[in-house]
């Protein structure tokens, strides 16, 4: 009889503990869903703000207002962050080209040509940023396609594999590589 009472008490504890676990799991699921919904809403809101303006200027204004900051100080943080990321990408681009030279895939002259072309494309893209705002999506697409074709022709003329511009090095490269195939060989 003592054994039965202990078993009954144990079953009562297990039942209560099992119920507590179910309640805890339910709370965890609810909290997780709330966090996911909040993060999604914030990400959607930030994306919408950036999409509406084409830049982070509204986001800068929102942050400045929300935290009582000088908008030019907030903009300076955004600008510095962008410059730092661009510098890191440029360093990685150069390191990848250096590795291609070590691997015998490029010559130093080809690397210099690529770096000069890379700079030219960046400068052109910055200069043309305003004019592309007045284009229709189809006109922008046609302009980008022409730019990609011109770059592919340039690469062929210089015996440079297009991978160094279109998605080479295991990530998206210059021009993002939309629709371009690596049809050149470095050899």
Task: State the main characteristics.
mainly alpha, 187 residues, single chain, disordered C terminus
Summarize the structure.
75% of the residues lie in helices and 0% in strands. It is mainly alpha-helical.
Can you give a write-up of this model?
- The chain is built from 5 helices and no strands.
- Among the domains are: 2-54; 105-177.
- The longest helix is centred in the first third of the chain and has 52 residues, at 2-53.
- It has helices at 2-53, 57-66, 71-102, 108-133, 137-157.
- The chain has 187 residues and is mainly α.
- 75% of the residues lie in helices and 0% in strands.
- The N and C termini lie far apart (88 Å).
- Residues 47-53 and 169-187 have low confidence and may be disordered.
């Amino acid at each position: 009889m003592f054994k039965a009472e202990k078993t009954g008490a144990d079953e009562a504890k297990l039942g209560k503990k099992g119920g507590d676990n179910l309640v805890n799991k339910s709370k965890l699921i609810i909290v997780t869903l709330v966090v996911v919904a909040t993060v999604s809403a914030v990400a959607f809101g930030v994306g919408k703000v950036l999409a509406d303006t084409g830049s982070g200027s509204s986001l800068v204004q929102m942050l400045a207002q929300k935290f009582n900051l000088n908008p030019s100080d907030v903009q300076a943080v955004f600008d510095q962050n962008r410059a730092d990321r661009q510098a890191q990408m440029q360093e990685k681009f150069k390191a990848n080209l250096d590795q291609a030279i070590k691997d015998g895939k490029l010559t130093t002259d080809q690397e210099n040509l690529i770096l000069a072309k890379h700079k030219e494309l960046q400068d052109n893209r910055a200069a043309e940023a305003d004019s592309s705002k007045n284009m229709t999506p189809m006109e922008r697409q046609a302009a980008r396609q022409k730019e990609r074709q011109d770059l592919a022709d340039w690469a062929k003329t210089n015996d440079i594999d297009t991978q160094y511009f279109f998605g080479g090095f295991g990530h998206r490269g210059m021009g993002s590589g939309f629709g371009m195939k690596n049809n050149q060989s470095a050899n």
